[in-house]
Amino acid sequence: MASTIKALSTISSTKKTPLFNEQEWVIEVQRSIKEDIADEDVKTRVSIFCVPQALVLCKPEAYVPQLFALGPYHHWRPQLYDMERYKIAAARRIQGRLNGVVEFDGVVKKFVKEEYKIRCHYHKHLDVNGETLAWMMAIDGSFLLEFLQSIYFKNQDKAQREAQPMTVSKRIEHERAKVGFNMIIRDITMLENQIPLFLLRKLFKLVYSKKDIADEELSNILTEFVREVSPFKISDDSLILMMDNFTRHAHLLELLYWTVVPKVKEHASEINQVNEQNGAVESKEEIKGDPTILQKAMNWLWKLISSINGAPIRYIKRLIFSRPIMFIVKCPWKIITALPMFSLIKLPVENFFSQLIPKRKSNDDKKSDGEEQPPLVEEIDIPSVTELVRAGVKFVPTSKDLTTIRFDAKTVTLHLPIISLDNNTEVVLRNLVAYEASVVTGPMVFTRYAELMYGVIDTEEDVKTLRENGVLVNRMKSHGEAAELWNGMSKSVRLSKVAFLDKTIGDVNRYYGSRWGVKCRMLMKKYVYASWPILTFLAVGLLIFLSCVQAFCSVYSCSSHLTQLINSGDGS
Questions:
Q1: How large is the average pLDDT for residues 147-171?
Q2: Any stretches that span the bilayer, and where are they (predicted)?
């Protein structure tokens, strides 16, 4: 419980001091146990987590606030403390809007009563006392409320904007222009930078004049916020349904997540790798072939040659098993490779055998790799947009949620929801993935969608094709930035199967793998391109053999000996 953690923290810190009082320790424990009885009645789930380290390592600036700290996780960072004056100014304006009903101190006292409920929202222990936490939440909540209202007023018509008082609308516009609107948007959508939504609701009821419709007005404000930051087009029906129940959500990021991500009724089963799709598909990595096929063919060819007893073959056999050749075979490899002619074949032969013998990492190497590096999750095994277009696949945008993703084999059409990319999108998407990885226990729909997009988008050409087909709206500087946006986003702690997305991926792979051009290209890569070291070795060996034969024949006049062997073979 929150109070127990706080008490034990106090106890442990007290015990470190030289003047430790056992009686005070007993009193502190008794008080914490009594307080935890009240805690049992607070049914509040943890909703504000620290982002998994595996994700932070990929891009720290996408998860750590760069301008404003909201809540306790980053409040004491020196880099962000300069912006406290803007939050204090917002709290001062909120105090002016209380209309004498209650002082700002009264707001803080109301928040102090909710201390344990506030602490329950945070996964990490908050090493601050109750009053400090209440002041922090009141000031941060004032700033956040004003900023959300500025988004709401921005999207209203001109008459409504001008009707707002200076302290609410125009001053907010002025402040927003000074500190950077987009940077604040990115900061307030970060998982570690959330404050409980129920505090925002309490504060809004205190400052809003019409108490009976305060929730409705706050719902409208939150609706505009979701429309502003959501990368997907959300239908009005979905927004109305979600905002009617906004009080069930813990914070802004959770509200955005459940507005964007549909609830899928299926059980999640965790998987270790992403690429468990059905159907043949061309990998984006270089496909390593099976050299044993060529080896079997060479063995068969050697047996066939050995079974032939013609005069030329007997002559070649006699040459191969002669003493000089047998000496070379039995001679150590280091001595052979030191010879002028044979040094040419050293590299091809070593490459050939290094492919046959897999390298194994030691336990120490594995441990050292796993300590600092994020988990290596392979991207979904699906062709890129360019490859699919070459195979005849068409892309069609849908204006609904992620459940509309599907592949129609009859019309060879892949349906994808419209997504808009701008300067804020990457932070929003990454923190939605982080929230899902930390909180959601069911199917990780959004993470799987991010994997799908990372799989189909490889280059600028892929982004351009999706934009031309209306699936992607790119407001970034270039298509290259949009292509790099998905990089590393899906390095999640865990992945889960999502039936409708896995079916779509499997259908695409089956169609793509059934194309004759794709089959031929895959066979070439698997059995020809990957066998180049073997072919190079054989070619060099054949070249050396022919050079030796030529040198031998120039000395011993092979033509006369070969004629005698042929005549003797015919005579027998």
A1: 64
A2: 527-552
